[in-house]
Automatic annotation (TrEMBL):
One of its GO terms (cellular component) is plasma membrane. This is Phytase-like domain-containing protein. The keyword Endoplasmic reticulum does not apply. Its main location: membrane. Transmembrane segments: none annotated. It is found in: Cell membrane.
Amino acid sequence: MTPMNRPVFILSLALSLSSYAFQACSQKANTTKTKETATPATDKTIPYQLDKGQPTELPDELQEISGITFLPDNKEWIYAIQDEKGLLYSYNLINKQLSSVPFEKDGDYEDLAVSKSHFIILKSNGTLYTFPISEKNNIQQVKTFKDILPKGEYEGLATDTVRQLVFALCKSCSADKKKAQTSGYIFKINETGDLEANGGFTLNINQLKQFDSSFSKTFKPSALTKRVSTNEWYILSSVDKALVITDDKWNIKSVFLLSRKQHTQPEGIAFDTDDNLYISNEAGNKDKAILYKFKLFK
């Protein structure tokens, strides 16, 4: 190389290196941008494979199963209610034994939960019923709480057994009209099954939209339960075919859309003592109601 050509070569080499560095940085920036703009529902994970539930066909008596729960000391028995029947059902997951006991006349019952000492049952019009767990095979002492909730349609009920609180969640309430929210109400339950108003909470629909733009101005929950091990709320919507997870302050952490083929009408949700997740589906247009078990994996 002649001395005259050396500066030209050096300049050409410098330009080539600069171009390479710019392309590398651009690729890195594009990768970073892709990660940042990915939908949160895809990025968030939970320790359950929602596409791999273990199905159990439920007896014909539970075709319209609308709520499920477990007692804290027994994972073999699941307790349930169904639309139109004032019965508490007990179903053994091992031997498939089913029994029922009346607690009230027939009506539109939507969900149930347990405190340390009582069952609580929610009627769609907001009426609540409590009776002792000790009477689960022969219910006698039922307490009825009419007009304890604002007028509306309700389907979701859950408890926080540590704080002895009961949570009722609107499906359609006048308080939420023209507002991007879903309202909920809190009650304190004592050892005799009495309920006392203890405030309320809301789910922010705009937060839901950040996870999935398909949500409109409404969110219609069909059930909820608390995952005690993580202090999170798992909220189910049959209408939206979605599972929403929030923190203890009702801030939305993740949203998962459920398979419409598997979950034709998901109406009940609960955890057993091993932290396995259960979702129940009404029969709908199928022959049988289905209970899905999602094993906890680590």
